Amino acid sequence: MIKHIGLVVAAVALVVLGYFSSLAVQSFSSKPASSGMAGGKGAYGKGKPTSRPASGMTSVEVAPAVVAAIRERISGSGFLRPEREVQIVARTEGEIEKISFEAGTEVPEGADLCHIDERALSIAVTTARLERDQAQVEFLRFKELLGAASDKEQKDAKFAQDVAGTRFAQAKLELTYAKPTAPFAGVIVKRSVELGQHVRPGDELFVIADFEPLRLNLFFPESDVLRIKSGQRVEMRRDRLSEIVTIGRVSRVSPVVDESSLTVEVVIDFSDAPASVRPGTFGVVDIITRTVENACLVPKSALRRDDDGEYVMRVRDNVAQRVSVTTGYRDDSILQLREGIAAGDLVVVQGGRDLRDGGSVSIHRQVPVRLDPLTVVPDSK
Fold first, then answer.
1. What is the tens place of the pLDDT at every residue in 24-74?
2. Is residue 213 within 8 Å of 253, Cβ to Cβ?
3. Which H/E stretch holds residue 13?
4. Among 15, 225, 268, 293, which residue's beta carbon has the most beta carbons within 10 A?
5. Residues 26-32: contacts with CB within 8 Å, 24+ apart?
6. Check: CATH 2.30.42.10 for 74-83+209-291?
7. Quick one: CA dihedral 289, 294, 298, 299, positive or negative?
8. Cα(367)–Cα(365) distance, integer angstroms
9. CA distance 368 to 298
């Protein structure tokens, strides 16, 4: 009997223990879950949950449209060259007896550059003068004979006089070849001869150049040249990010299109360039085609295209709005919008590739418009 009573008590104890165990488990499971971080902080912030897009919202990056005065420009690059550069060559044979100018020096127009041995040429002039004088005497003698000389004899004498005079003039001209002169005022770029050197016709003596102005020849597609006109301001830099080193003007726009390259030549002159700017200097230039006041600007990445045309996505009250736009000037970073967007409007620049008109958006970040100082007029920001 006592044995049976013990078994009953043990069974009751097991039931009671199971009951209280069940209560403990329920009590533990009903408490809030721990964040897993000390101090009870939120999983996406310091004590505050990080903002996340609500279900169905697209996270985007936006930029506000700004208004500024801009300079529309066409850029190019090339090497400067003199307006004129010519090679002075020997036109007679002989030995160099004198050199009047060294390379790098300025010369006035008409200055003697060097002297070539002229003794043979002087003898030729003297001989030609004697022959001319003799021919003149013979012609006068036949004229004094009046009717005694035939017409043929008089004509032959006149012809001999004319030929002798021509030979004398030619001899005097060739004598000037012994002293080559500068065809224009300029700078001796190169001296190719030495004292005592024997030269022949065609040998190079000097190279002379006119540095005023320095010139840059560029070639642009015909569509770009439509905006370029003579007299437009041109800014030259050593490279894209350096300061302006000199200012020039468009001198000439070719009236024809090169058939091989389908481009048009544009000539730019740089008058009064500093001494640091020389022929052969490489320059990056901006041709300022016009200035636009109150231009509405957005990042270039804001522009989108589809079959219906160009547009941007404007964000208002977390709703995306498709806005068709008319674009204007653009460079590597910014884009001018002529219609559709006003200053301060937020446009999507990143994210939401498949974003549609009326779609819900969450602004992940707002970034500024990076204004190019080469494009924006100073003090217009």
1. 434 433 334 333 333 333 332 333 333 445 556 899 999 999 999 999 999
2. no
3. helix 2-29
4. 268
5. none
6. no
7. positive
8. 6
9. 9
Task: Write the pLDDT tens digit of every residue in 98-118.
Answer: 999 999 899 999 999 999 999
CATH (residue range 58-68+293-366):
2.40.420.20
**SS3 (DSSP) at 203:** coil
Q: What ranges make up the beta strands (E) of the chain?
A: 58-64, 66-79, 81-89, 94-99, 106-107, 114-116, 186-191, 198-199, 204-221, 233-237, 244-253, 263-270, 282-299, 304-306, 309-316, 319-324, 326-330, 334-339, 346-350, 361-366
Residues near 332 by beta carbon (within 8 Å), at least 6 away in sequence: 300, 372
Q: Give CATH 1.10.287 domain extents, the chain.
A: 118-177
Reply yes or no on domain 118-177 having CATH 2.60.40: no
243-264 pLDDT, tens digit each: 999 999 999 999 999 999 999 9
Nearest CA to 78 out of 215, 212, 277, 191 is that of 215
CA-nearest of 306, 291, 218 to 254 is 218
Angstrom distance (rounded) from CA 70 to CA 373: 9
For 134, the enclosing helix (H) or strand (E) is: helix 119-144
What gap in Å lies between CA 54 and CA 360, rounded to an integer?
9
Length of the chain: 381
Q: Counting beta carbons within 10 angstroms of the beta carbon of residue 23, is it exposed (0 to 12), middle (13 to 18) or buried (19 or more)? A: exposed
What is the separation of C-alpha 344 from the centre of its chain, rounded to a whole number of angstroms? 32
Return the pLDDT at 54: 53
Which residue intervals of the chain bear CATH 2.40.30.170?
74-83+209-291
Handedness of CA 340, 346, 348, 354 (dihedral sign): negative
